[in-house]
Structures are given as structure tokens and as C-alpha cells.
Amino acid sequence: MSQASRPYLTIVGWTRNDGYTQNYAERTTHAINVLLRQLEAHRVPSELIVVEWNPPVDRPLIADLLGPVKNENVTVRFIFVDGKYHQSYRGWRERGLPTVAALTVGIRRGRGVFLTPKALDTFYSESLIAKIARRDLDDSCVYRVDRCDVQIEGHDWLGVSDGVLFDLLGRASVQRHVRQQQSPQWKIRDLHTNACGDFTLLSTERWRQMRGYPKDTTVLGLDADSIALHAAAGYGAEEVCWPDDCVVYKIVQAMTHNQRVMQVWKPWQQHLDRWFLEKNKRDLGHTFRMLLDYPKRRVLGMESVLAPSIERNFVAKATRFARNDVSSPINDEDWGLGDVDLPERILSRALWDAG
């Protein structure tokens, strides 16, 4: 691909019109249109890739609901993943969309110089878009920002101007997901993993080196965003955290993901863990958790799937990346369904896009 036909930025989102939250389709299409207006206003040569995973047969596609769009700077691509691919994941009956698998499909097909995942119903602050629009990103860095959770009563915000909306978002913030220090006991890099799935911007080439997000045989995708951030650092990317006014806004509707995750202990594991604490052998206890994979985790509403412990699934990998050991890729060679020719629809083709 020539540089002339390559966008500066790829944003990858996922969706499934299954009524996951109240007014989901309306909220998502509204947020997409806000994003497109921002990218146009700042003249960012970009593409938005939306992966519609396992679309319900009894509901319209989000691509149809979004309707025709016209942009000079933004190409809008929808990629569709048939439900037959979804059935290979444990827990597929309870959850219709494995987020990290859908994202990895989009990452594999991204054309931008830089790329970031994005939940489609979130909003980028104007300062964040303006920062990207300067087009001075460094391909040796991985860029992070905070996420601000917002509560707005009702759905009146769907009908307001963009200016009024961002004023509401700025005033209604109830929680800011700031950088949290990683546990020194874990002996891993101290990276800004808090809500990093909402904005992890790095070069597309490095995403390809990493092979997108880590492979997960379940629909849960636990720890995947944090693992990817540590993998980026392991592949040589230096973390850069942007100023406080560069944020991602998320309008909160119900329980957050972390509130739905619970640890599952067996009696012998609790006994062993208490023994390590009593003997002041926390490091040894941590090692045993990684080796024996406990306590495992369960997500509320997903009782059929028992996920690995955070020590086995995340810390063990992050420890390896802290040593810059990238000898074991986090995904297969055919990552992102790379061996499948997936149907695609282009809703808008930018001037930079030669087709």
C-alpha cells in the first residue's frame, strides 16, 4: 500500500445489535457520528473499522442503522463475522460477542500508520482529537489517556449539539480511571493499565508484531487489554501518558466489568494462601498462584466459563514482557481470522483512499 493511500489513524470498534444496554443501537450510532464529525473537523486522514460480530438475524445491522455517511477525511468500513465463527468460543451461548476476538479481526485489517481500539459508545474529548490531529506521533511509543465514567440521567443527550454534549460529559464525571501503581510484588512494568482497553494507541506495525490481542478460547477476554499494553512495552514501545484534558468519556449504564468478576476459591487454596501470609512468604504465595492457577474467576451471568487466575493469565505474561521476552507470541499466525475472507462494506470512502 502506498503512503498516499494510507490513513494516519485507524480506529477499531466492535458491535452487535443485541440490545446489550438500553438504547444500545441509538447510543452507538450517535457516538460514531460524533466521532466522524470530530475527525472531519480536525482533518485527520483516518479510517473507522467496525467489526459486526455474529449479527442477530432478527435485528438490523448497525451498518444499516448508521446509514450513508460522507466524509472527505474518514473512510468507514464495516467487517462482518458470521455466527459460525462465534460458536468455537466457550460461553458462546451466554454471550454473543467476544470483544477481543472482534477487535483483533479489525486490527489485522487496519491500514493506518497508528491504530487504537475504541468502544463505539464512548467519546473522545476535543483535546484528545486535537492531539492526534497534530500528526506528530512517534512509532516507538504507546500512548495512553484516562477514562472518565459519566452518569447522565435519561437520554436527552442524544438530541443535543456536540458542544452541549461535551459540556455535559465534562460536568457529569463520577469516576476517573487514573494510573494505578502495579503491585511491587508482581515484579512487572508499572504501566497505566487502568481502563487501557478504551485507548491504547500505537503503531499498526507494532500491533502486527504482537498479533493483536492475546488469544482467548472463551468469550470473556479477561486481562486482554492489560496484556496487550505490556506486550507493546515488551516489543519496545515506551509508554506516554497524555495530559488530563485528553480523556475518553464513557456514559455508564449499569455495573462495570470489574464489578461482575468474582474470585472462585477452593478450601485448600484458601488454607495455603493464609499459610503464606502467616509465614510472611508473600512472594512464594504469588509464585504458587501463578504455577497452580488459583483463584480462578467467574463473570456474573457466565457461570459456564471458569477463567484462569489473574496471576496465571496476566501476571505471568507481564513478567515475561518485563524481561523483554517476546519469544512466545500472544496469538496464532492466523490471528484475527487472517485466513478467512470476511465480507466488508464501505459506507464512506475518504479522499485519501484510492480504493
What does this structure look like?
The chain has 355 residues and is α/β, with parallel strands linked by helices. It folds into 2 domains: 3-254 and 328-348, Spore Coat Polysaccharide Biosynthesis Protein SpsA, Chain A; 260-313, no CATH class. Helix content is 32%, strand content 20%. The chain is built from 12 helices and 14 strands. The strands form 3 sheets. The protein has an 8-stranded mixed sheet with strand order 10-6-9-4-1-2-3-14. A 4-stranded mixed sheet has the order 5-11-7-8. It has a two-stranded antiparallel sheet with strand order 12-13. Helix 2 links the parallel strand 2 and strand 3. The longest helix has 18 residues, at 24-41.
> Class of the largest domain, according to the CATH hierarchy?
Alpha Beta
**Strand arrangement in the largest pleated sheet:** 10-6-9-4-1-2-3-14
- Going by CATH, the homologous superfamily of the largest domain would be Spore Coat Polysaccharide Biosynthesis Protein SpsA, Chain A
Query: Average pLDDT, to the nearest integer?
Result: 93
- Number of helical regions: 12
Write the layout of secondary structure elements.
Blueprint: E1 9-15, H1 24-41, E2 46-53, H2 62-66, E3 74-81, H3 83-86, H4 99-108, E4 114-117, E5 122-124, H5 126-133, E6 141-144, E7 146-150, H6 162-171, E8 173-177, E9 200-203, H7 204-210, H8 224-234, E10 238-241, E11 247-251, H9 257-260, E12 261-264, H10 267-278, H11 282-292, E13 296-299, H12 310-322, E14 344-348
Parallel strand pairs: 1-2, 1-4, 2-3, 6-10, 7-11
Antiparallel strand pairs: 3-14, 4-9, 5-11, 6-9, 7-8, 12-13
